[in-house]
Amino acid sequence: MSKRMLIDARQSEEVRVVISSTQDGRLLEYDYESSSRKIFKGNIYLAKVVRIEPSLQAAFVEYGQDRHGFLPFSDIHPDYYRTAVSTQEKTETVEEMPAIIEASKEAVVLAPETEENTEVVETVITTEEEADNISSFRRERLYRQHKIQEVIKKGQVLLVQVAREQRGEKGAALTTYLTLAGRYCVLMPNAGRAGGVSRKISDNGDRQRLKRILEGVEVPEGMGLIIRTAGMDRTKIEIKKDLDYLLRIWQKIRDLTLASTAPQLIHTEGNILQRAIRDLYNRDIEDVVVEGNESYQITKSYMKILMPSHVKRVKEYTDTSVPMFHAYGVEEQLNEIQDTKVQLKSGGYLVINTTEALVAIDVNSGRSTKERHIDETALRTNLEAAEEVARQARLRDLAGLIVIDFIDMDNEEHKTQVENKLKDCLQSDRARIQVGEISSFGLLEMSRQRLRPSLFESTMLVCDQCNGTGHVRDKVSLALQAFRILESNVQNAKEGDHFLLTLPVASAFVLFNHKRRQLTQIEEHYKVLININLDENLIGSEFKLTCNDKEIKSFYRPSKKQNQKVYNINRKDHQKPKLQPVEMYDLQDEALIESYTSEESVQEERRSQNYNNRQKRFNNDRRNRNRRFNNDRRDNRQNPQVNTASEAKKPWWKRLLKG
After folding, report:
1. Whole-model pTM above 0.85?
2. 131-137: long-range pairs with CB below 8 Å, 24+
3. Which residues are paired to 448 by β-bridges?
4. Mind spelling out the 3-state secondary structure of 588-607?
5. If pLDDT is split at 50, 70 and 90, which confidence band does 577 have?
6. What pLDDT shows up at residue 132?
C-alpha cells in the first residue's frame, strides 16, 4: 500500500507528523513534539545516586531533571557493582569519597568483560528469543546473589538512559543498559554477547541472510548489535557504515562522560524530524511533504544523510491559502483522536476509556443490522473493531494493559478469526505487544509498550470542575452534604463559637431558601453563630467550613488549579550543564555528512559508469556486426563465382539474402 508522510511545522510551538494512505487518505501513523513538553526518552545522562531503597530494591538518582529518576536493581549493569568493598568502605572517611566517585565515573565507559551481561530491549526492536532466555537466566541468577544496598552506594556516579518518560507524580524510569539506535541497526555498548536480528523480521530466508551479514561484521568485544527491520533489504556495506557511525557516537559519549560532572546531559536522541526519517520512513512512502521552509531544509538534510537516493521525495508545501492538513483531509481525523467514541463503517462504535495503567475498550454493534443472523453481525462488527483497535492503539499510543470487550460470540471459529485479525493488524506496530485469547466473557487482554508520552496526557488537563472523575454533585446534593457536615461539627462545639460555611452560589441559595428554619433552630439549641458565605471561585463539589476563623481542612477540597504543586528546579551552579551534549545525526558534523554522502556519491557514480560501459560495449558490438554483414554482402556482389561448398555452409538467412 502506497503511503504519504506529511510534516506540519507551520507553528513553531508544535510539530506534527502523520502517515496517511494515498488511496483514501486514511490516517495510519501519528507523532508530534511540543516545545512545552520535550521528550527525554532515549537521552543519556551522567547521574548520581542520591538514595537507595532496600524495600524496593531500587535506587533514586539525580540526572538533571525536576524529579529524581527511578533505577531498579535489575537495570544496573554488573560493572557498577562494588562487591570488593566490604569492611574497608565502612571505615572510609568523607575525604576519600570524591576519589571513589571519580573511579566509578571512569568505570562507566569501560567495556564489560563479565559473563553476566544481559540483554537490552530497544524501543523499536528486541533481540532473538534464544539470547533473551539466556540473558534473563543469567540476570536472575546474578540478582539472587546480591542486594542493591550491598553493591551500590550513595553518591556513586552512573551513566543512565531514560527508558520511560516521567508521568504525573512518577519519575522517569532509568536503565544502565544503553542502546544507540541507528538507521539500520542498534548498538548496545555494554550488552555483551546479546544481539541478533529483529523479531519483526519473520521470513526465514531474510533472517538467515542477515545472520550471515551479522557474522561478517566486526563488532567490538563486549558490545552487542541488532539489525532493525529497516535493514532487512540492506547490504553488508550499508550496515557496516551505520555501525561505524554508531561507534563514533559512542566514542564521543565516552569522551564527554570523562570530562563531565554529574548530573550532566550526555547524549540527545534527536528531534521529531530526525525520528520521523529514521523510524517512520520506509520504501512504501512515496512523498514526504513538509510545510515550513526551515523544517523542509532540515528534513532534506536528514534525508540526505540517512537515505541520499531518496532526497527527491522530500517536497515543500507552498500553498499558503489552505493549510496542508486541511488540504489532505487530515485535520478532521486528528480531532477525532481526542474523542472517547470511535465510529465504525458498519454502524458499530468503540468506547475507549483510559486510566493510569489500564485501557478499557468496549465494542458495540450500534446500527450494524445488515446481517441476517446475530452471530454474523457479531463477527463482522468484531472483525472491523479489531482492525480499528490496532489503528487507534498506534495513533493514540495506548499503552499498558488493554482490555477489549468484544461482542459475545458462541462459535469458537469466529473467536479465532477475530484474534488472528487483531494480530495481523498489529504486525505493523513498532511497539512490543503481547496478545491473549478471547475469554468466555468475551474479553481479550493485551499489553503494549509506550513509545512516546500519551497524547491524552500531553494535550489535556485535569478538569477543575470534576477533578478528573467526569461527574460533579448537583447544587441540592452539595448543599445537603455541607449542611450535614456543619451539623456534625456544631454538636461538638462550645457556646459562642462562630461557624462560617462557604459554598458556591447555587448551593448557598438552596440553604437560604429551604434550610433557613433548621439553621435557626441549630443556632438556638447549641447557642452558636452560623453564617453562610457565597464564593464564586469555588467550583464543582468544593466548599469550605471554618470555626472561629480556623479552617476545617478535612472538608475543604480545593481544585488542582488552585493547589498546583510547584517543583523547585533551581540547581547549584556546579550542577548546571556546561558541556554540549552529543547529538545523533548532527548536521554540523562534517565527517558524518562526508562519510554518508561521499560513499553514496561514489556508488552512484560507479553504477552510472558501469551502465555507460555496458551501453558502449553493446553499441560497439552492434556496429561491428552491421559492418561485417555489409562487407559480406558487398563481397558477394563483387565475386559471384564462389565455391558452392562454402555457400552451403553459410547460414540459411545469408543464403536467403543473397537470393
Report:
1. no
2. 131/193, 131/194, 131/195, 131/196, 135/194
3. 400, 433
4. CCHHHHHHHHHHHHHHHHHH
5. very low
6. 46
Strands (E), 148-284: 157-164, 173-175, 180-181, 185-188, 196-197, 224-227, 264-268
State the virtual CA torsion across 412, 418, 419, 421 in degrees, nearest 10.
140
Instruction: Name the more confident of 495 and 83.
Output: 495
Coil vs helix vs strand at 2: coil
Per-residue CA distances from 159 to 61, 254, 658 (Å): 11, 10, 87
Under 8 Å between Cβ of 127 and 226: yes
Helix and strand totals (H; E) in the chain: 18, 26
Q: What is the three-class DSSP state of 481?
A: helix
Cβ contacts of 298 within 8 Å, gap of 6 or more: 273, 587
Residues comprising the chain, all counted: 659
pLDDT value, residue 455: 67
| Residue 419 half-sphere exposure toward CB, CA atoms < 13 A | 18
CA 385 to mean position of chain CA atoms: 24
State the sign of the Cα–Cα–Cα–Cα dihedral 236, 241, 246, 251: positive
Closest CA to 446 of 409, 392, 408, 410: 392
Residue 566 grid cell:
510547584
Confidence of residue 599 (pLDDT cuts 50, 70, 90): low
Contact 334, 30 (CB under 8 A): yes
| Nearest Cα to Cα of residue 117 among 156, 172, 79 | 79
Q: What is the 3-state secondary structure (H, E, C) of 503-535?
A: ECHHHHHHHHHHCHHHHHHHHHHHCCEEEEEEC
Answer whether residue 240 shows pLDDT above 60: yes
Rounded to whole angstroms, how far apart are CA atoms 150 and 146?
A: 7
Which residues, 6 or more positions from 428, have their beta carbon under 8 angstroms from its beta carbon?
394
Instruction: For the beta carbon of residue 85, count every other beta carbon within 10 angstroms.
Output: 14
d(CA 513, CA 53): 57
d(CA 199, CA 187): 16
Separation CA 620–CA 639 (nearest Å): 28
CA dist., res. 521 & res. 528, Å (int)? 10
Could you give the count of Cα atoms lying within 13 Å of 382 in the half-sphere of its Cβ? 27
CB atoms within 10 A of CB 80: 20
Q: Give me the helices (H) in 290-363, please.
A: 293-306, 324-327, 331-337
Reported confidence tier of residue 362, pLDDT bands at 50, 70, 90:
very high
Please state, in angstroms and rounded to a whole number, the distance separating the CA atoms of residues 435 and 390: 11
| pLDDT at position 211 over 60 | yes
Cis before 263 (ω within 30): yes
